[in-house]
Structures are given as C-alpha cells and as structure tokens.
Design a protein that fits this description.
The complex is a heterodimer of chains A (769) and B (136).
Chain A lengths: L1 H22 L8 H11 L2 H5 L4 E8 L4 E7 L1 H24 L6 H20 L3 H19 L6 H32 L4 H5 L2 H6 L3 H15 L8 H4 L5 H10 L3 H14 L3 H22 L5 H22 L2 H32 L15 H15 L5 H14 L5 H23 L19 H19 L2 H15 L16 H19 L4 H8 L6 H23 L4 H21 L16 H19 L3 H21 L3 H22 L11 H27 L5 H14 L4 H9 L1 H23 L2 H7 L1
Antiparallel strand pairs in A: 1-2
Chain B lengths: L1 H26 L7 H19 L1 H8 L3 H17 L26 H27 L1
Helix pairs in contact in B: 1-2, 2-3, 2-5, 4-5
The chains are: A mainly alpha (769), B mainly alpha (136).
Amino acid sequence: MLFAVMSGFIVASLIPVLGKFIRTKWSVLLTALPACLFIYFLSFIPRVAGGEDLLITYQWIPSMGINFSFLIDGLSLLFALMITGIGTLVFLYTTSYLKGDLYLDRFFGYLSMFMAAMIGIVLSENIFTLFTFWELTSISSFFLIGYNNTEKPSRVSALTALAITGLGGFFLLAGMALMGNITGTYSITEMLGSGDIIRQHPTYYILLICIFMGAFTKSAQFPFHFWLPAAMKAPTPVSTYLHSATMVKAGIYILARFTPIFNGDPAWNYTLMAVGGFTMLYAAYISIFKSDLKEILAFSTISALGILVFLIGLGTAGAIKAMAVFIVVHAMYKATLFLITGIIDHETHTRNIFELGGLRKVLLPVAIAGLLAMLANSGIPPTLGFIGKDLIYESTLSAPVFPWLLTIAAIATNVFLIYSSILAGIKPFAGKLPQQFKNIHLPSWRLWVPPLLLASAGFLTGLAPSLLEHSLFYPVVNSIMPGTEAMNLKLWHGFNLVLLLSAITIGTGILTYLIFKPAPGKVNWMEKFSKYTPQNIAYRASVLFRKIAVFVTSSLQNGYLRLYVLVIISFLTLLLAYKAFTGVEIYIDPSRISPLTSAELIVMLILIISMLYTVYTPSRLSAVAAMGVIGYCICLLFVFYSAPDLAMTQFTIDTLTVILFVLVLYRLPKYINYSNWRIRLRDGIISLLFGTLMTLLAFMVYNEPTNKSTAQYFANNSYTLAHGKNVVNVIIVDFRGLDTLIEITVLTISAIGVFSLLKLQLNKYDQEL
Amino acid sequence: MKQLTFKATTYFLLPLLLLFSIFILLRGHYLPGGGFVGGIIAATAFVLHSFAFGLRRTRQLIRVNPRLLMPFGLALAIFAACLPIFQGFPIMTGLWLDEPLPVLGLIGSAFIFDTGVYFVVLGATLTIIFSISESV
C-alpha cells in the first residue's frame, strides 16, 4: 500500500536520471504506472463493496500521533479509481500531445508527482499526511500550470493558482489542527466519531470557516473561482487531469469526508448550499458567454463543482447519492471534452468557437466522442448523465428547505450547462468545414482513443447503471452515511415529476441555444463587467500588497549593512527595555562573586583599550585588527572560566573573521570620515543602551535559579553511554547529534548562498527574460 | 623580502597546520577539540597558503573544488547517523568498535560523524572565503 502511494514519487525522482530515455517514444511505458495502480485499486472493489473498510497503518512519528495510515472505503476508493483511471488515459494522451517536447521528462515527473500526491490525499487517514499531500498537489499544480515557463501569462497564472490554493491550504491546516486539538487525535476515523465534541466546542465556527476556506479555494468556489480559468494556460492534459477531473475535486473530497461531523448543523448546510448554489448558477451563466473552448469548459467545471458543493450542503441521503453519481459522470464527460479540445487545438491551432466548424469531416472519432460527452453533459438519456441529473432533481425536490427555489436553481444551471456543452461538444464539429482546415488528418490513436473510451464509458454505464451501483456508488454513500438503504439506479423511472423536469431542462437548453445563438458581440458585452470580478479585485489587492512590501523592505533593508545592524539592535533594545520596564528583580549575592585576579584585570584593560581604539582609529584596517584583539581577549576570558572548547573555536573563528574583513576592506578606499558627530552620537547612545540592557540581562540570568539536571545527566553519562571524556564534544556529536547535523546543513546552505550571490550573475539572466 | 619569509613559513606551516587540525579532530572526544575547530584550522591553513602563493596555486593544491567537500561531509555525517539503523537501533545511536585501532584509538560512529562536520566546515569556509576573495 505504501509502495502504491509512493510509486508516483519514486517514478518522479527517477525521471531526471531517465530523462533522455523518456523524451523518446518510450514515454508510452510510463502509462503503465497509473494503469497498474488502477488495476491495483480495482482489486479492492469486492472487499469494499462487501462493506469492509480497510485501514492500513505505517508508523511515522507515533510519539506525535502522526502516522502514514491509509483508509480505503467507498469514498476514497471512488476517488482513487478516478485519479488512476483518468490518469492512465491522460498519460497516454500526453505521450502524443507533447511528443518531441524538450522537457517532456520534466512534465511526466510533475504529473507522476501530482498523481501520487492526489492518491495520498484521498487515502490518507491522518490529517497531517493528508495536509502534506494536499500541499504537494498545489506545488505540482504550480509547476504544471507554469509548464510553458517562457511565457509570462503562464507564470502569472501558475502564481495565482499557487497563491489561492496555498492560502486555502493554510486555512485547512489551521482548521485541522483545531480539530486535532479538540478531539485529541489526528486520525480522521477517530475524529468522525467525535462530531458532538467538535460541534459544541467554542472554536467550532472558526474551525468551520477554516475548513470552508480550504475546500472552497481548492475546488474553485465563488469568490475564489478565478484561478481555475486562469490555470487553463497549462497544456491541455494538465487542464484535463488537474483542473477538471481530480485536483479541484480535492475540496469536494474534504467536504464529503467530514460530512459525518458537520452534517445537520445549519451553519454547515446553509453555507454550502448558498456558496455551491451561487457558484453553480453564476459559473454556468458565465460559461455561455465565452468564446475560448477551454474557458467555456473551465467555467462549466466551476459550475459542476458548485453543484457538488451544493449537494453536500443539502446533506440528505439522496443528495449524497446524487453527488457520488455526479462526480463520476462529470469526471468522464468533462475529461472527454478537455481531451477533445486538446486535439482540436493541436490540429487547428485555435480554440475560438467562432472560427471552428465542420471538423466531423476530418476528425470523425473525435466528433463521436464530443457528441457522447455532450449527451452526458446535458443529461440526455440513455447516458449516466441523465441518471445523475435525475438524482439531483430528486434531492432538490425533497430538500428540507425551499425545495422549489433550489430545484429552479438546479434547472437553470443545467440549462446553461446544456448550452455550453453544445458549444464545446457539437459546435466545432457541426456545419461547414472552413477552407483552412481541409487538409487536417486524424492524429495518432493515442490522442483520440482516450476521449472516445471515456465518452463511451459514460454512455454504456448509463445503459446498465446497476453495474456501478453496488461496486462504486453505494459504498460511497455508505462511507459518508452508514446504514443508508441500498440505492436503486434505473434509467427509466416511469412518468413522474422528475422526468418532466428533465424534459423541460433539455428542451429549454436546446431551444435557448437555437434562439440565442452564440455571437462574438455577446462575448464582448460580458467583458464590460470584468472590472467587478473577484479576479480583478484580487489582482489589485496583490499589487497593493506588493507595493507595501517593497516600501517596507526598502526602508528597512536599504543595502547598507550599518542600517541593518542598527535596526536589529534597536529592536532588541526596545524589546529588552520593555522587559526591564515591566520590572526586573536583581539581587547580587556578594559571597558568590569570586575575586578578580590580576590576569583577568589585565585582559579587561586590554579589552577596553582596544575597544576605544576601534572607535577612534582613523583607519579601517587597524579597526579590524583591534576587533580581532577584542575577540582574542574574550577567548582568554573563556579560558579563565574553564571553557577551553569555546575558547578554541572562538579563537579560530576570530582569526578567520579578521581575514575575511581584511579581504573585503583591502579593496575599499582609505578611511573617509563620512559619519558626522550626530550619527556618531546616535550610534553611541544606541550602543550604550544596548550594552546596559545586555548587562541587565546577564544579571537576570545570574539570578534565575538554574536547573542543572540536564547538564548533570550529560556529565555523568558522556563516558558510560558515549565513550567520550569531553562532554562538550559528546553533546555535539552524540547526545545532540541531530542538531549538529541540521547545523552543518545550514552552514552548507549559507555557503551556497554566498557563492551564488557572488558568482552567479543572476541580474544578467533576469534582463534576458 | 617580507614576502619571501611569509612564503617560506607558509610552506612549512601548511602541512603542520593540517596535521594539527587532524590531531584536534581526533582528540575531540576526550580533550578540547573536535570536527568544527579542526575544520576551521584546516581552512585557515589553506587561506594562509592562498595569501602567500595566490588563489590559483591553492586551488591546484586542494585539487577538488572546495564546494564539493560540503556534500561529501554532509553525506558522511548522514551515513554515520544512519549506520545504527542497519543494526536495528534508532537513528544516531553511538556505535563503537570493541578494540581500539592503532594510532586512531577507539573508533565509533561519532568519529565518522565528526569527520563529516570537519569536511562541511572546511568546505563551507573555503567556499565563502574563496568566493569573496575572487570577486573583490
């Protein structure tokens, strides 16, 4: 199991080594990864359908309750199958879509990483591993959206998506940490059992907001939806995989996963219904005014996500059923439509629906896939989409509040969605073939087979819905609402209200399309409102934010080291002064002070003389040398107070520091007296204050009752446990060895930092871009 | 004349200082010393050499790029830290040979770890100082 989840990361880490190999036609071999995982997860179906929940735990940090534990129940299995199933097709598709691309290996690396992270999200049973995987999807999505990194819009979109989903991730972490705090466990299954405690806790509403923020940003709900259309700058396989079928559903997954805790609380249900309902209607409406195929699909995806959130908000067993079916339906038809768009873009180099037409004559299998996907999208029988739509109507009609209002909202959404599905699935293939597309040929089978397969699957499962019902849908419902009665999915329910509503929807949708024909003028009309969109507001906020950041940074860090030191010291002084102001007790016991020896006295004298010399000398080099003397004096003090290790290190470090200073100062002009008496006075006062306060601090430390148990332990055990007589060194390399390991890592990083600052001419590189 | 004295002194000081740094590294477990100080002393030796003979000569003398010493040292330290895992102990458990080796004395995983520290410090110090002195 652990291997199955990690396999994507393993493959991704092998990619740099195998890069050359993958860029050739052998890239097809990578398809085996999602395919094998798909089969692996299929093998769980019988057990999960039998009502079994599999919990597999690997210990990670058991002392903190953080484990790699994976839960396979109906909900996670459905998502895992979707991720790997569509993943297989997308991998296959990509091998042809990006054939010959210079960085194909990199692309597959990100894609495998993303897939693994996504599987990790849906299988994680521990909130911390869930969060880790959650962030990994945001990061891999960033790289995938910005894949064409030489184009500025790509980079901007990638950054937007990262900013929004990163913000959400932050909230999610907060929400989950709160939940962990309240329940005292980080295991999701254990949390689900303590819904009452969570709901009655004073921080409940903060927690709820955090979870909402996490889910809404990831699943592109209004007003955070705008990152999704922007993310369409990514290559089409990415849009298909991340931004319609899987990643954006992570938010849905979180909401569904925690439904048992929150369901029934009005704050939860009404918020989800309101946000989901508004998003589905708004995005569906916007989608019919778009002219770019991918944008149409992006907005209809947002709308579909809205429907899912809305259904979770309804919270009835029927609505959860509808959600389970609709997730699958949507994944199948939307992925198909995206893949088709990719083919059209690949062959005709345009995605503008006003330029496209008649492509059925040259791309027949693609046109068939488009038609099937459109049928599923519109919910026309006998597709699975029809069943999904029926279930939605059923659940809105039986909703506890405003059943008619909700039903009308659902119908309106579906009418718009039918309109946009005709735009995306039929319009490019219908009508006359423009002259410039006459000599298009059907591309490689690897491009057109995946969408056709997906579309046919959506069509065939509609004919025999009971096939999926027991194996997939019912376990989902059962894992969210245990004990729900078995579902009975049928294509034909007889003549009833739902069927009538369905017929009305389909009829209105098609009629609207025929009467209200798409035209470029309408698209332009909508553009006028772009000023008031959340996207624009967020953009302005980010610009303002950047301006403030630039102002703060440039005023605090102006590039002069003296200012940096001044800021740091003044801040510390203020902090210490505040502490001193609040009251400090200082009592010095004369009997504990050892008498001053003559050696110490001499060292102190030298110290003071060299300090004065440093301040008053007119030459830079002698100031540095005097600083060195100060350092050596401190070393001597260390020696007096029996800290030879410290003295030794200080001695060598001081030597090196002087060398470094000399290296740098050697090239500077001779001393110029650029600081006037005012600056000197200011610096002097600050130094004096700081020195006084440090002295005060030293006395405070002296007064604190010391706890010597740790020191005693180290001293007693250094020889018996670690075979060392030098306690300091034993602490460094053994007792606190991990600290040292981290310290030398930091040292390495800082050395690399110095090196890259001085050696890599990044400025030149920036100007070229 | 001054330059000549300096060069001649450095000529003899370099091996002496390097030996001294290894001595400091070795004795660290029982007496004041250790990888950190040892690394800095070794770095000082090379810096001294570069002052006397020029950076190019020093780089030739070291042969490997000092930057590479950092990952080498880190790898060594991580290796020492992970060594106990293969024997079923938690990470960073000190392992020791039963018999002391000639010259080196009793050797354990802590010594390998300290050697890693030595190389990281040496590499980092040299990288920083060489980068600065090459760019001013």
